[in-house]
Amino acid sequence: MPTPPRTRLTQQNLGALRAGVAVPAYDRSTTEVGIVHFGPGAFHRGHQAWYLDTLLARDPRWAICAAEIRPPGLAQALIPQDLLYVVAELDERIRFRVIGSMKEYLLASQDADRIYARLTQPQVKLVTLTITEKGYCLDGNGELDLQHPAIAYDLTHPTAPKSAIGWVTEGLARRKAKGLAPFVAISCDNVVGNGHKFRNAVLGLAQARGDKELAAWIAGEVRFPCTMVDSITPAADEALKQKVAESVGLYDDAPVQRESFLQWAIEDVLGSDAPDLASVGASLTNDVEAYEQAKIRLLNGAHSTLAYAGLLAGYTSVGEAMNDTRLAGFVARMMREDITPSLRGTRGLDFENYIGAILQRFRNPALTHRLYQIASDGSQKLPYRILGTITDALSAGRPIRRLAVPVAAWMAFVVREAKEGRALNDPLAKMLADVGGSCVGKASADLPRFLALREVFPANLAKEPKFNSAVGAAYDNLDAFLD
Ligand code: CS2
């Protein structure tokens, strides 16, 4: 492989970029921070930060202060680049764009005062999160888990929190103490009813802190819109860094790769002094939850099914799994015949077209989306992506034979990883390793061990006989169920 250019992407070197590489269409020195974002990972940088990069060309008030809670993050990669990075759109069309909407990058571990200063500035109108499902510290019923180690810590260290929920709660407390109107708190994660869950978590923490007045103020004054976010964003690797460097002519140590498809639906409660996100392609709607439910159950439910069944079959990427016509056919039938009936739908949402588009996106040959990435955090993803659909199907008397397959495949995956000595990337990794390690590959012995995990399986579902028998049958003979 040719040696990629080593001249770094920086504000000063933008002029050295190859022709055709898009750059910020505004003077970054004149932008102001209007948004604090917790969790500046790849998805945020390829999605929300992209929208705002477009908006900043017409409204300089909406630069992002990125707040990193979970080290090691991207400070060492981004700060030497003046917080610039490349988004590589790898799809039918290959495009490279330098994003400049990130204006500040702060670490919770050492910049707490600066983060609080931002959170209590009147011009900061939005606080947004991409912290993944596990970041909300919720229990199996979607409520704040006060026993969660980070929440337990935040209750005794309210001004030096470990969780994003703790930071937002303390940020609101300080904003209230200064007599300021609250910021709008926006979850940008794949959590069904993400705005409600976010609100319940922050409210729950304020109440657990014993601050009734703060809790009442949050309940009455703070908006937590629900959102749906979507763009397939495989993790970056050294090959991407090389590809980007060769394509743009400068070295970027923190590029983002994603498909061209980009969607952001936001509950239309942002208010008049919020950024005009509709003007840059976001959808402000009063029925975001229908879009959110469809996306998480169809796209993410299919993704998790491909991940576990695909990994067990020896595949490593979504593309490989989709090339298995039997597996791809099974997933398509599950989407059309088992997930779609559970969806409420809304005007303008055509399920057949939506499913067809998702399957086409999964087949994008320009992106390699690793199944292990999707398989991560299964204990947190399964409830939103699969178990909700199963619960609805059982209530409606619909069959769950196919829907049981991703559950059984996740269990079999956990067992295989435990037996082969690979640690799971999951907040419950230790617990799952113990469960998986004690399993014998028979549903009669193994299922009770998994279904006892209240963090994943609500009690009423765990004891439901139809659920037990469907998952057990699939667990004992997974291959026979892929029809
Ligand atoms: C994926 C999602 O990693 C995963 O769990 O299912 O990140 C998926 O790529 C996005 O939700 C697509 O919008």
Task: Record the SSE blueprint.
Layout: E1 33-38, H1 42-46, H2 48-55, E2 63-68, H3 75-78, E3 85-90, E4 94-99, E5 102-107, H4 112-119, E6 126-129, H5 149-156, H6 164-177, E7 184-187, H7 194-208, H8 212-221, E8 227-230, H9 238-248, E9 256-258, E10 263-267, E11 283-285, H10 288-312, H11 318-323, H12 325-339, H13 351-362, H14 371-375, H15 378-396, H16 404-419, H17 429-438, H18 443-451, H19 459-462, H20 465-476
Parallel strand pairs: 1-2, 1-6, 2-5, 3-9, 6-7, 10-11
Antiparallel strand pairs: 3-4, 8-10
Characterize the biggest β-sheet: 5 strands, parallel
- Give the termini separation: 43 Å
- Give me the number of helical elements: 20
- Return residue spans where pLDDT drops below 50 for at least 5 consecutive residues: none
Strand order within the widest beta sheet: 5-2-1-6-7
List of distinct ligands in this structure: D-mannonic acid
Helix content: 40-55%
CATH superfamily of the largest domain: NAD(P)-binding Rossmann-like Domain
CATH architecture of the largest domain: 3-Layer(aba) Sandwich
Beta-strand content bin: 5-15%
Q: Could you name the CATH class of the largest domain?
A: Alpha Beta
Mean pLDDT: 96
Radius of gyration computed on alpha carbons: 22 Å
Structural class of the secondary elements?
alpha/beta
Number of domains: 2
Total number of β-strand segments? Answer: 11
